[in-house]
Design a protein that fits this description.
3 domains; globular; 15 helices; UDP-N-acetylmuramoyl-L-alanine:D-glutamate ligase; single chain; alpha/beta; Protein-Tyrosine Phosphatase, Chain A
Length: 441
């Protein structure tokens, strides 16, 4: 079956699903296969539950069932990606292919995507990546969520390996690109910081090769250098806090969230925790205004956005003020979070931080740098979680920081040692599950 024929069948369906448990009726089910799962085993169940078609791998028992609703293909993931690309290429707005904005970066991808979507939605019907579904499965699913009334799509792309972005841009075919930043993350996969720049820069490579445009943080020397190598200035749309003549105001107990004073004196009062989110706000406003959203509407949209899933959240409990940024961590984002904590005006401050994963040979040295930084901040309480911080603590007898093997252990300690009246940063890589300590604060 060729892609045009598969697309014709897709047009009969309500949506695409890769989870047989989520079938509601009318879907095209893709039986994806990974190291620890095989969707082909559940294709029959998906059909029983009401899926209209099931796309399965050739040579599997279900592919030989003779059921006309079963569509055998050589590789179900490749078929899903091809279908998404075909849908992207055959969706038109006003006689032109739908505009796709692709974004990636080391930190802030999801928050920036959410902010851009919120701002553009002031004027357009926008389809965007749900949550952080930004990999080789999530990007196709995001593209296939583009409906007949969609006017702009915002597609987030993540990368753990050197060629991930190059594969994802071939599926999403973005017209505009935005890299939030480049920093030290997933070094186990990229090998080095230069490897990170090459990998993220594949978005710029695609945009340049296809005469597209980029949104560039003019305040970021790494990004400006990367863009200068690839683009003429007429293809670059600049933004940035300093570039815009804006000012990030200090946070305090009275004003805990990020506030930005624009050059005209107007105030952007967000619901985001952390000055490190200021470039993300600037990016969203720049994208919105490029597409005709007024400054007033862009500011209103940004101010209405409330983060979730432990991303840049500020929460006042009965006992403490929490800066919850526990969704993920790497040296760049950890440094930014600690810098932000140092700027917060509070009587008592603490940092509860967990290991940063996937740093390879540089892991211990990077954890030592973070430890040096946090100890130099003269905080009232520092709690470290994870084996990498244990290694970083070796040889530091008399260190004031407390260490715990797991977030569960820290949570148990907090039950016995109640912490009151603090402003507390809670941050760590996803696998450390630092959010487990929040109920005890």
């Amino acid at each position: 079956m060729n892609i045009a024929e598969l697309y014709s069948l897709y047009k009969e369906c309500s949506r695409v699903s890769t989870d047989s448990r989520a079938i509601e009726g009318g879907e095209m089910f893709f039986a994806l296969k990974g190291e620890n799962f095989d969707g082909n085993l559940y294709a029959g169940k998906a059909l029983e539950l009401g899926a209209r078609y099931a796309v399965v791998n050739e040579g599997t028992p279900v592919s030989q069932s003779g059921d006309p609703r079963v569509i055998p293909v050589p590789d179900t993931l490749e078929a899903l990606q091809a279908l998404a690309r075909h849908h992207r290429e055959n969706t038109f707005v006003g006689g032109r292919r739908i505009t796709v904005i692709g974004l990636t970066g080391t930190n802030g991808k999801t928050t920036t995507k959410e902010l851009i979507t919120r701002v553009l939605s002031e004027r357009y019907n926008v389809a965007a990546t749900k949550g952080n579904l930004n990999n080789d499965i999530g990007v196709p699913l995001s593209l296939l969520s583009i409906g007949e009334d969609t006017e702009i799509a915002v597609i987030e792309m993540g990368a753990n390996h050197p060629d991930d972005i190059s594969k994802l841009v071939k599926v999403s075919e973005p017209d505009f690109g935005l890299i939030t930043n480049v920093g030290k993350a997933h070094l186990l996969g990229f090998g080095s910081f230069e490897g990170v720049k090459r990998a993220k820069g594949q978005l710029y490579d695609y945009i340049a090769a296809h005469a597209g445009e980029v949104f560039l943080n003019a305040d970021d020397p790494e990004l400006t250098g990367m863009a200068k190598e690839r683009f003429h200035e007429d293809k670059v749309n600049l933004y940035g806090i300093r570039y815009m003549g804006a000012e990030v105001l200090p946070s305090s107990a009275e004003h805990p969230f990020l506030r930005i004073r624009l050059s005209d004196g107007s105030l952007v009062e967000t619901r985001l925790a952390g000055a490190y989110n200021a470039p993300n706000v600037a990016a969203a406003m720049a994208v919105g205004m490029h597409f005709g959203v007024s400054l007033e509407d862009a500011v209103s949209a940004v101010c209405s956005y409330v983060p979730k899933n432990n991303r840049s959240q500020m929460e006042k409990t009965e006992r403490n003020m929490l800066i919850e940024d526990a969704y993920n961590a790497n040296p760049t984002s950890m440094t930014a979070a600690l810098d932000n904590l140092s700027l917060v005006e509070a009587a008592r401050k603490a940092a509860f931080i967990g290991d940063m994963r996937e740093l390879g040979e540089e892991s211990v040295s990077e954890h030592k740098k973070v430890l040096d930084k946090v100890l130099a901040m003269d905080l009232d309480l520092v709690c470290l979680v994870g084996d990498e911080f244990r290694k970083a603590l070796e040889g530091r007898e008399g260190c004031s920081a407390k260490w715990f093997a797991t977030s569960d252990e820290l949570a148990s300690w907090l039950k016995e040692n109640q912490v009151d009246g603090f402003t507390i940063l809670v941050k760590g890589s996803r696998g450390i599950q630092m959010e487990k300590v929040i109920p005890e604060l």
